[in-house]
Write a structure and sequence with these properties.
binds zinc ion, Ribosomal Protein S8, Chain: A, domain 1, three-stranded antiparallel sheet, alpha/beta
């Protein structure tokens, strides 16, 4: 059979990109059955779970009765819980990276080269759907991860209990960023702000942000507003200590704006 997945397990992360869903992730777990994949990544996007739930709805003999959540497909089910199709899950999984999209540095699957790195995500998502996917109190990824700790295993997968104690993979919420190289110790960072606040920073032809660029010596860019985005990112490139100061100045500016424009209550 032709090999369908190529990676170096010592260093690579298998990244499921924009069109990936629970079914494609399950598919790779079947192809890769019994062989290790140490690190996988997928997008912090509802698309990942909205496309299909692998429930045998149509009675076509696919999936399993009761379907599968994203984490269940990654973990796998006991054979006696799957009569139609096996759900082996991944073997030897150490790291699960949830990629929180950044407009500041968009990366598509297939575009990941040696110049692409990762940094811890600085926000929960740019659209309401992305934020919900991560933060929803009942179904969000953070809640599901917390439940594994509370229950000591991934619920609903039967007796195989692969994610117990040291066997549980580590979860990381990350964003792509340019890979730092050489001796350059400048780094990339971003600050999310409400989309409708951006004009407070950019009025008078970016006078305020240009002032910060000059004062702190770091590059500052404003991401375009994306479709359905309720948050927009301000991007930074510079020394970390300068970025920290520039971020603080932006937050201070927005707060002072808020105070200045809050209507006084007349008694
Ligand atoms: Zn699907």
């Amino acid at each position: 059979m032709e090999r369908q997945v190529w990676f170096n397990n010592e260093s690579d992360i298998v990244y499921f990109g924009d069109n990936a869903c629970v079914a494609s992730i399950h598919e790779v777990s079947v192809i890769q059955k019994g062989k290790e994949i140490r690190s996988i990544a997928f997008n912090n996007s509802r698309q990942t779970v909205m496309c299909c739930d692998l429930d045998n709805d149509g009675g076509f003999g696919l999936g399993r009765d009761g379907g599968s959540t994203l984490f269940q497909a990654i973990h796998g089910f006991d054979d006696d819980l799957c009569s139609l199709q096996e759900f082996p899950g991944f073997t030897g999984l150490k790291n699960i990276y949830v990629m929180v999209k950044s407009d500041y540095y968009p990366v598509m699957a297939g575009d990941v080269t040696q110049w692409v790195g990762m940094r811890p995500a600085v926000h929960d998502g740019l659209t309401a759907g992305q934020i919900k996917f991560r933060k929803d109190a009942y179904t969000g990824l953070e809640k599901q991860i917390a439940d594994i700790d509370i229950l000591g295993a991934l619920p609903g997968t039967g007796e195989i209990k692969k994610w117990v104690g040291d066997m549980k993979p580590k979860f990381h919420f990350m964003s792509f960023c340019p890979h730092p190289f050489g001796v350059d110790n400048r780094s990339y960072d971003a600050l999310p702000i409400e989309a409708n606040q951006v004009n407070k920073l950019t009025r008078n032809r970016f006078a305020f942000l240009n002032g910060l660029r000059k004062k702190f010596g770091c590059e500052i860019t404003v991401a375009q507003r994306g479709n359905g985005h309720i948050q927009r990112e301000i991007g930074f490139f510079g020394l970390e200590k300068d970025i920290v100061k520039a971020k603080a100045a932006i937050i201070e500016k927005l707060v002072s704006f808020e105070i200045m424009h809050t209507p006084m209550i007349k008694c």
